[in-house]
Amino acid sequence: MRKPKELKVKPIKNGTVIDHITSNKALHVLKILGLPDGKSRVTVAINMESSRYGSKDIVKVENRELESSEVDQIALIAPKATINIIRDYEIVEKWKVHLLDEVHGILKCPNPNCITNKREPVKTRFYVINREPVILRCHFCERLMSEDEIESQF
Ligand SMILES: [Zn+2]
């Protein structure tokens, strides 16, 4: 049986392990993923040692396999996160989250006069103009949004 060696926390039998989360961002990650969901067992490890990045957070979600469309959203605040899908203690799938060039619908524009904040519902749309740190630009009003502003929404 192949053991997931790099996972310092106790292995899970089935589910998803999100590794290499930027340290102290695990709780934001949970919010983006809508966890805990009342069903899945969730373990959070904050400020763990990481040979690659100094320190990191880890989130384990038992008995739930997250889809890439769900987890790619966490690239906004944890751009180096890796997703491990575990079945019967083995990693059957592994990938890095990928921040897309555009972010649709997840965030609100901080500009109160932006059309997306008016009464008629217009889906927000931001362009990723910088990745580290993340800076977004609103498609409609061109307002820039910093990482702090992104985090304050979760
Ligand atoms: Zn805007």
From TrEMBL:
Gene, per the UniProt record: pyrI
UniProt-annotated binding residues for Zn(2+): C109, C114, C138, C141
Superkingdom in the source lineage: Archaea
Matches recorded under InterPro entries: Asp_carbamoyltransf_reg_N, Asp_carbamoylTrfase_reg, Asp_carbamoyltrfase_reg_C, Asp_carbatrfase_reg_C_sf, Asp_carbatrfase_reg_N_sf
Family: Belongs to the PyrI family.
Residues annotated as domain Aspartate carbamoyltransferase regulatory subunit C-terminal: 102-150
Cofactor binding: number and manner: Binds 1 zinc ion per subunit.
Gene3D superfamilies reported in the protein's UniProt record: Aspartate carbamoyltransferase regulatory subunit, C-terminal domain, Aspartate carbamoyltransferase regulatory subunit, N-terminal domain
Full protein name: Aspartate carbamoyltransferase regulatory chain
One GO BP: pyrimidine nucleotide biosynthetic process
Species: Methanothermobacter tenebrarum
